[in-house]
Amino acid sequence: MSQTTLTQLEQQQDFVRRHIGPGASETSQMLETVGATSLDDLIQQTVPASIRLPQPLAIGASQTEADALASLKNIAAKNIVNRSFIGMGYYDTHTPNVILRNVLENPGWYTAYTPYQPEIAQGRLQALLNFQQMTLDLTGMDLASASLLDEGTAAAEAMTLAKRMSKNKKSNLFFIADDVHPQTINVVQTRAEMFGFDTIVAKAADVAEQDVFGALLQYPGTTGEVQDISALIAAVQDKKGIVAVAADLMSLILLKSPGEMGADVVLGSAQRFGVPMGYGGPHAAFFATRDAYKRSLPGRIIGVSQDTRGRPALRMALQTREQHIRREKANSNICTAQVLLANMASFYAVYHGPEGLKTIASRIHRFTDILAKGLTSKGLTLAYKQYFDTLTVKVGESKNTIVEAALKAGLNLRSDLDGVIGISLDETTTRADILALFGVILGAEHGLDIEQLDNQLVADGSDSIPAELVRTSDILTHEVFNSYHSETEMLRYIKSLENKDLALNHSMISLGSCTMKLNATAEMIPVTWPEFGKLHPFAPMQQAQGYKAMIDELGEWLINITGYDNISMQPNSGAQGEYAGLIAIRKYHESRGDAHRNICLIPSSAHGTNPASAQMVDYKVVVVNCDKNGNVDMADLKTKAAEMADNLACIMITYPSTHGVYEETISEICDIVHQHGGQVYLDGANMNAQVGLTSPGLIGSDVSHLNLHKTFCIPHGGGGPGVGPIGVKAHLAPFLPDHNVLGVDASTKGNGAVSSAPWGSASILPISYMYIKMMGGKGLKKATEMAILNANYIAKKLSGHYPVLYKGRNDRVAHECIIDLRPLKESSGVTEMDVAKRLNDYGFHAPTMSFPVAGTLMIEPTESEAKAELDRFIEAMLCIREEIAKVESGEWDALDNPLHNAPHTLADICDSEWNHSYDRQLAAYPVASVAKNKFWPTVNRIDDVFGDRNLICSCPSVDTYRD
Ligand SMILES: *Cc1c(COP(=O)(O)O)cnc(C)c1O
Asked: Which residues form the pocket of ligand 1, taking CB atoms under 6 Å from any ligand atom?
């Protein structure tokens, strides 16, 4: 027997080998194809020497899956999971197990991309439409979106909507009721400061005296108080102000809806509909408004349209409102939202249905009544007699004693308000919890009995929800919420939707700029550990030492990878990171007496979120041209930077450029901007081409966001969640986000928050943690190199057939490549859309379409795709090229060809008549390999224009689906 050493055997168990698609022999074949002698040789040809890292990453060796899981489990064990009664917008919940396993833990749901290709995304679009319907029913509004990032940012979006839509154009004042959750106030005030709006925080009742463009109320209040707010709403509207109401979804099951009370916007968090607290996130926020404000709605809306067969079909509606089209004029900068979590919440509503939800809400409320009765029977006073699930109890001097006793008993109470404690109950509350609460508040000898209190309540009745605030309107009457209440039915419903969607568990999704790499199972497993899932974001720090250790270590690694000095994990998407980074830049200028600097240079090729974020800090966008090679036009940059030097705030630039090229001039660009007093914001979306080879810090930039949901393996979730931490150089560190409930870092005190939770979407950070731990420094660098090899391999193989735009030095691309379809469109009439849809017939998701250049496709294979998969994709693209040739030559009719008619559905193939000039087999099985694993789009091409003209954003009646 050959003598392999133990070390060699252990190396063969390396995770790196599993994360990276091509093995050693494929790698050599691919290197040969691209004409490089080794990986090193390819990298030297591709990445400019001037920006290469002089030393390897200071990240340890890779760990096996088993070892990394074991060590993270030890860290997680440092978290103390108390029973949480803190409330403040976060509540414990039972994630129905059928949803936990079949959605949250299922790659069919979590690895999907944002539904930009709706024909292969009808499943999650349906789940999101259900989310919108649920939002409409519970809020009593006309129109809802398909999730925002969290309650605080949703409230901030409501403020900006109010500013846009209010007819009170004179007022610059936004009113915030003092019983809004404190973290929401913090997020809204940060946003107001950036926009230059004035805010006032005062008793809700005082709103009538103010002249405001908008107001934010909370219902029920953060103290639990339930009051009729219709008169307050009317008073603001009388003076042409817009009223937004932050509401609790669970309470709305029993309470009169804010819509019925006249609200203009209703928003809040859908967390307690089955989504774990997760130390603050991710959760979906809901947002609903009047039909009249539909063009002003932030974020994504799902709408009903029809396909070419006239069948109902879903897609994202009114996309022209959004950042990728409207840029600095967009309603918001939101790109990645919270799709996976919105889907979970909507499935929760589907599973429980209206009756099940009423039972859950009523039980919570009954427990609250029992708790109230017990406490008041012993002489304690409630600050508010009307409540749903939260009591504010006057305890005066004994507050600290009670809070301490509770902690000893493993119970977290709300303790941030003077002389009172807050107690919020939830779906998981039990009789034992109530007795434990009596015990710590009243002493062990309280003598109270739950049954007795309950019977007393039955006899006396309860007026904690006054008659005029009891909901009388129906909820969730649509069939979808009344059909799947057994686990078998629910399991099949979830599966039926999953089957409509193409995700990474079917084939590669080569989305340029989005880095759809492997989301390894070992990375996902810790997300649903209770040690991470069950923590309330405002739990005392000593209970969150596991989180602290994990976040600190991950932060150190990311600092090393980016070459920055400090990092903030708070932003919960890339676009939020941009916003947070620009705030840091603005505050830095202000601190130096340069508050007038307000010009943000942005190359014309930038992602839409860049200009949209610049607008959010009140910066003026000045576009810098790109030359015909896709690089920043240096002459134009120099002129503009010099011209605007007095007011230059920053440049926002992406590296490698959005054109997929390592610009040689990047350091010079940084120098020019610095010379003229500006800061450099480097958009980190393309970090997958940097990690281990170069870094933003080395290149000379001052601040970047990372998209952990791109480069660092957090799955896209079908359109979210994301995490967008920002790294900064030391001079910007004092201007990172802070948090008013739990300060995040002494040096940043008072900067304000950009997200509701101090560490944003903390519960998915273990994914990136595991990735880095299992890859180690060398593995991470190898991943970058292989991503570059894979992209160059595709570019090389396609280049004889399609023009590859924008090559860098030595004709190399970075980690993605753009192929130009415009010449073919000219000669054949076949569009990039036709090619994208035809790829569905071949079993692939289309690459990024028409970004950064209209009429092109941007392909990013990532390091995780094996050569066999790349070859399958290349084969599809080459076959499609031949099909285009048949249209070019006139062999196929310009309107009746498989490209124009793509995607083909089973319905097409099963039609009794087939009147096309090509046959059924070519339509559905264009190459032999497709037959092995055929993916059927469930609808034909969808008519966007029809859908926008006839906007329907709620669930259509079931009859619509019958032929
Ligand atoms: C994805 C992306 C963003 C925005 O990130 P989100 O997480 O979707 O908000 C910004 N810039 C570029 C270049 C991107 O690719």
From this structure: 335-336, 513, 573-575, 607, 609, 654, 658, 683, 685, 707, 722, 724
